[in-house]
C-alpha cells in the first residue's frame, strides 16, 4: 500500500470531491465533475488513486463511487495499446488490487471483485502474464482469518475464496469449442493443484457444520461454503483437472452428506438461511454436471447419487409451503434423476424404482395443490407460464427461468414413458425425441414395450373423470388435474402410439369434460393445454372435434366465484398450436368472430390473448380468411385505436399485439390476390374494390397512432415513438400499394403518414432481418407511389397539414436517403443488398421531379460515397456482397460520372490514389470488378436482364471515359480497359441471347417443374429410406459427441465469416432502370466499337472465339472488328 501513498494528497482529495459530485442532484455540477474525471484519466496512477479511495475512508458512498468508476475505467483502458496504462503501472496496480480485495467487504467487495475479474481474464486467463497470482492467493489462503489458526487476520477467508472463484470463472467453458478434445488449461490445472485441492479440508469441515446445524437451517460460515461450491462447480463444468480427479471421491462424499441435510418439511425464508439453500442448489448442479459431462469418471458414484436424489424427490408431498429456492432444489433433484436415467448404468439402477417414482414423487408434483389455486387468483399470467406453457408466451423466456418441480417432473415422466432399456454404448444417449419424431403421427412401433405402455398409462388410467360440478379442492379434481398434466408430459410417447390409442384417450378422458354443465376451470384449462401438446399427433378424424371443443372453451364466460381467463388463454394457445399443424377448420368465421369479440373485452389480458390468436389465424387461414379481412380489420382497428394513449409512449401490450394482428391480416389480404383470368376477371375486380376498404382501415389506424390532434400531442416530443415500427410499416406498405391516385392519397392522408414514418425510420438502429423487411417494402412502395402521383413534400421538407405535429420535419426523400445510406454503409449483408436495390429506384424517381438535376447532384455523391466505403472494406471483389455495391456505383457513374470518379480516387483515410500517370486506382479497381462481374462464368454473376443491361451501359461508359481521359498509355489503365472491352462484348451477346430466348425459357420452366415433381417423389422415397434406417443408428459416445460439437462449432464459425459478406439470398431481384430502360444499348455499344474498337484491339487482340461469337450475333460489326 506504500506505493499508493506517493500519490499527491491534493490530487486524491480533488478526485474524491469530483466522485461525490457525480452522484449529486445538480446537473451542471455533475457535468463538470464528469468532465474533470475524464481529463484526470490520463494522470499517472489514476487507477491506483481510485483503488485507494475504494479501500479506505468512512464514506461508504465515496468508496462505492470510486470502485464503480474504477470498473468502467478498467473496461476501456486495461487492454488498450495506446493511451492505456503503462506496463509498470499495470504491474503495481494489479498487485495492490489483490491486497485491497482481500480486506474490503459489502458492496465494495462485489465491485472490486468485478475489477479483479477484468484484470484476471486479461492477464491470467488469456495472456498468461501474471505468474505470481496463484502463489499470492495460496499465501493469502494460509494467512486468512479462518485458516491461520488464530482467527485474527486482516485477510478474510471469504474474500480470498471469492478471488479464487473469480479466477476460475473464465475456465468454466471450453476456451476453443472447435477443438474436439481440448486439454485442461494449464492455468486451471495449476489452480486446482495449488489452491482448490488443499481447500477440501475446510470444505469437509464446513459440510460437517451443516450436518450438525440441520435443525437451525444455518451456520456461521455457510456463505464461505457457498463460494467453495461455486468454485468446484465452475472448475468441473467443462474440464476435469487431474488434481481434482485424484480426490473426486472425497469431494463427492461430502456433497452427498450436504444433500442429505436438505430440508423440505418447513419453509426456509430467513436471510441467514439463503446461503445454505444456495449450497444445496449448487451441489445438485455439480451432480448433474458430473453425470452429463464426466460420465466415465462417475459411474461408481451413481448408486449413492441416485439414492440421494430419489430421497429428495420422494419428499415432494411434504413440501407444502416452501421457499421458491426449495422448489428449485426439488426441480434440480428431478433433473438429476433424469440425467442418471439417460445413462446405461443409471437406467439399470432406476428401472426397478419406476413405479415407486411415478406414484410417490412425480404424480404428487403434478397434482393440483392449494398454491395453484392461490396463484390462479392472484397472478393468472404467472400461473399460465409456470403450469400451462405455450408458444404464445415463449418470448417471456419462462422455459429457462421458471424451472419448477412440476416441469422437471413432467420431463422425467416423459423420459420414463419412452424408456425401453439401457443405452447400448457407454456414451451419452442421443436425444430420443429426434428418433421418435421420424416415426410419424402415431404410426410407429417405438412405443411398444416401453415403460409408458407397461407402467405409466395403466397408472394414469386409474383416475376417473371428476363429477360435473365437483369442488376444486376435492380429491377427484386434484388427482385428475395431475393425470391430465401427466398425459401432456408423455406427448412424445403418445406420438409413437396408434391412432386408436390416442382417440380412445381423448374420447374417454378429455372430451367428456367439455360436455359438462359445470366443469372445474382448473381441470378444463389443463385439458386445453393437453390438446395443444397433442396437436402434432392428433388423428385427422379427431381434429374437428378438438377444434370445436377448444372454440367452446375460448368463449367460456366467467364464473361468479373465479376467473376463467386461464381457460380462455389455454384454449387460444391450443387453437394456435392446432392451426400451426396445418389443420384447416371447415368454418373459419366462428373463430374469427370469437377473436374479435375477445379483442373488444375491457380487460387488457383478454384482448391480448385474442389478438395473438387472430394473428395466427390470419397466417394459417390465408385464402379462407381473406374474404373476412376487411370486416375483421375494421372491427379490430377501432378497438386498438381506443387504447392508443394520448402520450404515445409507452404503448400498452394490447396495442402492440393489435398492430401485429392487423399486419398479419394485411399480409393475408395481399397474398390472396386472384389471377386475372379467375372467374372472368370478376374475382380480381372484387379484390381491388376490397383493397380500397382495407387501405382506408389501415390508414385510419396509422392516423390515430401518428397524426394525433394537436391538443393531444406532447409538444416536447416532435414525432411519435418508433413503437411497432415493423408492423406499422407493413400497414403503411399496404396503404401505399392500394393507393391508386392523388385523390385517394389525399383522402387517406398518405403524405403526412409517410412523412412521420420516414422521420422514424431515418433514426432506425434495430437492424434485424425480419424487422427490416417491412421497412424496405414500404420504401419500395413509397418510391412507386411517387412515380404514380408525385407528392409535394417528397423532396422538400415542410410542415405537414393538421392533425400532424406542427413542427418542421425532414423531407421524405432526405429521411429515406439517411436510412438507405446507413444500411449500405453498416447494415448486415441482406440489408445492404435491399438498400442498394431501393437506391436504384430512388435515384430514378428523384430524377423525374422538378428538381431532378439538383437532387441527383446531392444523392449520387452520397450513395456512391457509402457504397464505395463498403466496397473498399470487403476482403475480395468476388464475394457476393460486392455485386450490389458494384452495380450501385455503376448506376451512379452512368448518372454523374465526374463526382463518382472523384470519390473513387480517394482512399478511406482521405488520401488520393491517383498515380503519376493520372490513373485513379479506385476507378480501375471498380472497373475491373464490374468487368469481372459481367463475365459469363462469374459467380456471383449477372443473370437478370436489368442487371446485364446496366452492366453493358456501365462498361461502355467507363470504357469511353478511359479513352477520353487520355490515360491508356498507363499499363494498368490499358489492362483495365481491355478487360472492360472483353466483358462488354461478352455481356452484350449474353443479354441479346437472354432477351431472344425468354419465351423458350418459360416453356423449359414448365417442363422443368414436372421434372422437379418427379425429383420430389424420389426425394421423399429417399427420406423414407433414411427414416427407416435411422432406427439402426448406434448410440453416441462421449468422444463422438465432442467431435460433433467441435464440428458444429467450426461450421458456425465458417458460416459467420461467410455470411459477413454474403446476403446472396437477396439476389435475383430485377433492378429499376428508369429511363435507362429506354436506352438502345446495342446501338450505343456498336457505335463505341466502331469509333474505338480498332484502337483498343491494335495493341492486344481479343480471344477469337469471343470475336466470332459477337460478329455472329451482330453481323454489322464485322467491318470494324
From TrEMBL:
Compositional bias (Basic residues): 432-442
Keyword line: Nucleus, Transport
Region called Disordered, residue ranges: 421-450, 995-1041
Compositional bias of kind Basic and acidic residues: 995-1007
Main location: nucleus
PROSITE patterns, alphabetized: IMPORTIN_B_NT
Transmembrane segments: none
Subcellular location: Nucleus
Composition bias type Acidic residues, residue spans: 1008-1023
Ranges for domain Importin N-terminal: 33-103
Name used for this protein in its record: Importin N-terminal domain-containing protein
Amino acid at each position: 500500500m506504500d506505493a499508493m501513498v506517493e500519490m499527491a494528497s491534493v490530487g486524491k482529495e480533488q478526485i474524491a470531491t469530483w466522485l461525490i459530485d457525480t452522484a449529486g442532484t445538480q446537473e451542471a455540477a455533475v457535468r463538470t465533475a464528469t468532465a474533470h474525471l475524464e481529463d484526470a484519466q490520463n494522470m499517472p496512477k489514476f487507477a491506483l488513486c481510485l483503488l485507494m479511495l475504494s479501500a479506505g475512508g468512512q464514506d461508504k458512498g465515496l468508496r462505492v463511487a470510486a470502485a464503480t468508476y474504477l470498473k468502467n475505467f478498467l473496461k476501456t483502458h486495461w487492454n488498450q495499446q495506446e493511451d492505456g496504462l503503462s506496463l509498470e503501472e499495470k504491474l503495481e496496480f494489479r498487485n495492490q488490487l489483490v491486497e485491497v480485495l482481500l480486506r474490503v467487504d459489502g458492496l465494495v467487495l462485489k465491485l472490486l471483485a468485478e475489477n479483479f475479474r477484468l484484470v484476471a481474464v486479461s492477464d491470467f486467463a488469456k495472456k498468461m502474464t501474471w505468474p505470481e497470482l496463484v502463489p499470492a492467493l495460496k499465501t493469502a489462503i494460509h494467512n486468512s482469518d479462518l485458516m491461520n489458526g488464530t482467527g485474527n487476520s486482516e485477510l478474510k477467508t471469504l474474500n480470498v475464496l471469492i478471488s479464487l472463484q473469480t479466477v476460475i470463472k473464465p475456465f468454466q467453458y471450453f476456451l476453443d469449442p472447435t477443438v474436439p478434445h481440448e486439454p485442461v488449461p494449464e492455468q486451471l490445472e495449476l489452480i486446482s493443484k495449488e489452491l482448490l485441492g488443499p481447500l477440501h479440508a475446510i470444505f469437509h469441515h464446513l459440510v460437517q457444520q451443516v450436518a450438525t446445524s440441520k435443525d437451525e437451517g444455518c451456520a456461521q460460515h455457510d456463505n464461505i461454503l457457498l463460494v467453495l461450491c461455486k468454485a468446484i462447480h465452475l472448475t468441473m463444468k467443462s474440464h476435469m483437472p487431474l488434481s481434482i480427479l485424484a480426490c473426486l471421491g472425497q469431494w463427492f462424499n461430502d456433497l452427498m452428506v450436504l444433500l442429505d441435510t436438505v430440508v423440505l418439511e418447513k419453509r426456509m425464508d430467513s436471510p441467514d438461511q439463503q446461503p445454505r439453500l444456495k449450497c444445496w442448489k449448487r451441489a445438485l448442479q455439480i451432480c448433474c454436471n458430473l453425470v452429463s459431462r464426466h460420465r466415465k469418471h462417475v459411474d461408481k458414484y451413481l448408486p449413492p447419487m441416485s439414492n440421494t436424489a430419489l430421497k429428495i424427490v420422494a419428499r415432494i408431498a411434504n413440501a407444502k409451503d416452501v421457499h421458491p429456492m426449495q422448489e428449485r432444489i426439488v426441480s434440480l433433484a428431478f433433473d438429476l434423476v433424469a440425467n442418471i436415467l439417460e445413462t446405461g448404468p443409471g437406467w439399470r439402477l432406476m428401472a426397478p424404482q419406476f413405479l415407486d417414482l411415478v406414484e410417490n414423487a412425480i404424480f404428487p408434483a403434478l397434482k393440483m395443490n392449494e398454491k395453484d389455486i392461490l396463484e390462479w387468483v392472484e397472478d393468472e399470467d404467472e400461473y399460465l407460464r409456470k403450469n400451462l406453457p405455450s408458444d404464445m408466451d415463449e418470448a417471456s423466456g419462462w422455459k429457462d427461468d421458471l424451472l419448477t418441480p412440476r416441469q422437471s417432473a413432467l420431463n422425467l415422466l416423459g423420459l420414463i414413458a419412452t424408456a425401453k432399456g439401457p443405452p447400448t454404448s457407454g456414451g451419452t444417449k442421443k436425444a430420443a425425441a429426434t428418433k421418435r419424431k421420424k416415426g410419424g403421427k402415431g404410426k410407429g412401433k417405438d412405443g411398444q414395450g416401453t415403460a409408458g405402455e407397461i407402467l405409466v398409462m395403466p397408472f394414469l388410467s386409474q383416475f376417473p373423470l371428476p363429477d360435473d360440478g365437483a369442488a376444486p379442492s376435492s380429491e377427484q379434481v386434484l388427482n385428475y388435474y395431475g393425470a391430465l398434466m401427466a398425459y401432456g408430459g408423455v406427448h412424445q410417447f403418445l406420438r409413437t402410439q396408434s391412432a386408436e390409442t390416442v382417440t380412445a384417450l381423448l374420447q374417454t378422458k378429455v372430451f367428456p369434460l367439455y360436455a359438462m354443465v359445470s366443469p372445474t376451470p382448473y381441470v378444463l384449462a389443463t385439458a386445453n393445454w393437453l390438446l395443444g401438446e397433442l396437436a402434432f399427433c392428433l388423428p385427422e378424424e379427431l381434429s374437428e372435434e378438438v377444434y370445436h371443443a377448444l372454440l367452446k372453451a375460448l368463449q367460456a364466460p366467467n364464473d361468479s366465484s373465479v376467473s376463467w381467463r386461464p381457460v380462455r388463454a389455454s384454449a387460444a394457445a391450443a387453437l394456435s398450436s392446432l392451426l400451426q399443424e396445418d389443420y384447416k377448420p371447415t368454418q373459419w368465421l366462428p373463430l374469427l368472430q370469437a377473436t374479435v369479440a375477445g379483442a373488444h373485452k375491457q380487460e387488457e389480458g383478454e384482448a391480448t390473448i385474442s389478438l395473438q390468436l387472430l394473428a395466427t389465424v390470419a397466417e394459417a387461414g390465408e385464402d379462407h380468411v381473406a374474404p373476412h379481412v376487411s370486416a375483421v380489420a375494421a372491427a379490430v382497428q377501432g378497438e386498438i385505436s381506443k387504447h392508443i394513449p394520448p402520450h404515445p409512449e409507452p404503448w400498452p401490450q394490447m396495442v402492440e399485439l393489435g398492430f401485429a394482428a392487423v399486419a398479419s391480416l394485411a399480409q393475408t389480404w395481399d397474398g390472396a390476390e386472384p389471377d386475372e383470368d379467375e372467374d372472368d376477371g370478376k374475382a380480381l375486380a372484387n379484390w381491388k374494390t376490397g383493397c380500397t376498404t382495407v387501405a382506408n382501415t389501415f390508414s385510419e389506424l396509422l392516423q390515430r397512432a401518428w397524426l394525433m390532434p394537436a391538443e393531444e400531442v406532447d409538444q416536447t416530443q416532435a414525432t411519435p415513438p418508433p413503437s411497432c415500427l415493423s408492423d406499422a410499416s407493413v400497414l403503411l406498405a399496404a396503404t401505399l400499394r392500394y393507393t391508386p391516385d392523388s385523390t385517394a392519397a389525399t383522402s387517406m392522408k398518405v403524405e403526412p403518414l409517410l412523412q412521420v414514418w420516414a422521420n422514424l425510420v431515418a433514426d432506425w438502429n434495430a437492424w434485424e432481418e425480419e424487422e427490416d423487411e417491412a421497412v424496405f417494402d414500404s420504401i419500395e412502395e413509397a418510391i412507386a407511389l411517387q412515380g404514380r402521383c408525385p407528392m409535394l413534400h417528397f423532396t422538400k421538407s415542410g410542415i405537414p397539414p393538421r392533425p400532424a405535429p406542427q413542427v418542421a420535419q425532414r423531407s421524405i426523400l432526405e429521411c429515406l436517403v439517411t436510412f438507405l445510406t446507413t444500411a449500405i454503409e453498416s447494415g448486415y449483408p441482406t440489408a445492404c443488398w435491399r438498400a442498394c436495390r431501393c437506391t436504384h429506384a430512388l435515384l430514378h424517381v428523384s430524377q423525374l421531379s422538378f428538381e431532378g438535376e439538383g437532387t441527383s447532384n446531392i444523392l449520387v455523391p452520397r450513395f456512391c460515397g457509402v457504397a464505395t466505403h463498403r466496397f473498399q472494406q470487403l476482403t475480395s471483389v468476388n464475394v457476393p456482397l460486392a455485386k450490389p455495391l458494384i452495380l450501385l456505383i455503376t448506376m451512379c457513374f452512368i448518372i454523374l460520372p465526374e463526382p463518382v470518379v472523384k470519390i473513387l480516387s480517394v482512399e478511406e483515410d482521405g488520401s488520393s490514389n491517383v498515380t503519376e500517370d493520372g490513373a485513379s486506382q479506385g476507378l480501375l479497381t471498380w472497373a475491373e470488378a464490374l468487368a469481372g462481374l459481367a463475365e459469363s462464368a462469374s459467380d456471383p454473376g449477372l443473370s437478370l436482364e436489368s442487371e446485364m443491361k446496366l452492366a453493358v451501359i456501365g462498361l461502355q461508359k467507363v470504357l469511353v471515359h478511359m479513352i477520353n481521359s487520355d490515360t491508356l498509355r498507363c499499363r494498368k489503365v490499358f489492362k483495365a480497359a481491355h478487360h472492360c472491352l472483353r466483358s462488354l462484348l461478352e455481356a452484350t451477346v449474353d443479354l441479346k441471347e437472354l432477351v431472344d430466348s425468354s419465351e423458350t425459357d418459360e416453356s423449359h420452366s414448365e417442363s422443368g417443374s414436372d421434372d422437379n415433381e418427379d425429383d420430389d417423389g424420389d426425394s421423399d422415397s429417399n427420406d423414407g429410406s433414411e427414416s427407416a434406417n435411422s432406427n439402426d443408428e448406434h448410440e453416441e459416445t462421449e468422444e463422438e459427441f465432442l467431435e460433433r460439437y467441435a464440428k458444429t462449432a467450426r461450421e458456425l464459425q465458417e458460416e459467420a465469416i461467410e455470411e459477413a459478406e454474403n446476403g446472396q439470398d437477396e439476389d435475383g431481384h430485377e433492378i429499376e432502370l428508369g429511363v435507362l430502360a429506354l436506352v438502345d444499348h446495342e446501338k450505343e455499344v456498336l457505335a463505341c466499337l466502331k469509333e474505338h474498337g480498332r484502337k483498343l484491339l491494335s495493341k492486344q487482340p481479343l480471344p477469337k472465339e469471343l470475336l466470332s461469337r459477337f460478329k455472329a450475333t451482330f453481323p454489322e460489326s464485322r467491318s470494324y472488328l
